[in-house]
Write a structure and sequence with these properties.
The protein is α/β, with parallel strands linked by helices. It contains 13 helices and 6 strands. The structure holds fe (ii) ion (FE2).
């Protein structure tokens, strides 16, 4: 039965259920499915319908297989329980509903446990094109189909393990300022690496010009997905770790530079290399600049050690 708050629905920026959970300090929540309004379901339907032809043209084949395997509904917001029933037998991953931003270490630690923190709200109908914060369309239609692929799922787990390595490696530094500076550099490097792969990664082998998308920021954006692959305004280069960890990542416009991997086992091997570089102390002084490292994220890593 709909509850008294259902009229507001679960709209990004206006979701009483989520706001109350946040006010109570609850990060992990349920998905109160009856709270979704008619308008929320219509937003999903519109987003899904216009993405379909673009996915078929630009998405990597594993994403398309993932969409089929999950059988995501076209006409309504998916129930995470239904998504997980299909996803977990494939790679052990599940989508876990959260009330909002998950501090860095906790986010990566969830990945290590094969849990993907998932936003349950959906963008308002007048902002279908762009929303700076994630919503359920970005998280479930953009990310989750990739979690059906073994190497990609294992890569996410390795990112989670790298967060533990970063926390452990800096825990023994006696000088607090030095510890924070080195940890901040490791977090910035990891955040850039994650951004240019899991969020905005391109892959060789399929799609127009032999390039397709696997990054979820691209796969959930009608405009940027085509732009990333077709536009001559985008520089596309083979992923080199030394470049990516030093490359500024800006979030408020289409990406002018994107990086290509050959395959998901190639991506997996790059995360191994990244961790090796961390352990060798090669990432303690990456180039300054975006992304900024928020105090809550830094605290989460300090507290983890
Ligand atoms: Fe994302």
């Amino acid at each position: 039965m709909p509850t008294t708050t259902s009229a507001a629905g679960l709209t990004t920026g206006h979701a009483p259920f989520v706001e109350s959970a946040r006010n109570r300090g609850e990060l992990y929540i349920s998905q109160p499915y009856d709270e979704y309004s008619k308008e929320n379901h219509e937003s999903w339907q519109r987003l899904f319908a216009r993405m379909q032809p673009r996915w078929e043209r630009y998405a990597n084949p594993y994403f398309l297989h993932g969409l089929d395997a999950l059988d995501l509904p076209h006409d309504r917001v998916p129930r995470l329980a239904d998504v997980n029933r299909r996803l977990q037998p494939l790679t052990g991953f599940c989508a876990r509903p959260v009330s909002g931003y998950v501090p860095g270490f906790l986010f990566f630690d969830c990945l290590k446990r094969r849990e993907f923190p998932t936003t349950i709200t959906i963008r308002p109908p007048d902002r279908l094109d762009y929303l700076p914060e994630p919503d359920i369309f970005h998280d479930v239609a953009g990310h989750v189909p990739m979690h059906t692929e073994k190497w990609f799922a294992d890569t996410l787990v390795r990112f989670g393990e790298c967060a533990h390595t970063a926390a452990e490696m800096t825990a023994g530094i006696a000088d607090y300022r030095e510890r924070v500076a080195k940890l901040t550099s490791l977090m910035r490097a990891m955040s850039r690496f994650f951004w240019f792969t899991v969020e905005f990664g391109l892959m060789r082998g399929h799609g127009p010009g032999g390039i397709c998308a696997y990054g979820s920021g691209l796969l959930s954006s009608w405009g940027e997905l085509a732009h990333a692959i077709d536009s001559d305004q985008v520089q596309r280069y083979p992923l080199q770790l030394e470049w990516v960890v030093n490359q500024v990542a800006e979030i408020d416009h289409y990406q002018p530079i994107l990086f290509l991997v050959d395959s998901f086992d190639h991506l997996f091997s790059l995360v191994d290399e990244f961790e090796r570089w961390m352990r060798q102390g090669r990432l303690f002084n990456v180039a300054p600049g975006l992304p900024d490292i928020a105090e809550t994220d830094l605290r989460s890593f300090l507290d983890a050690a």
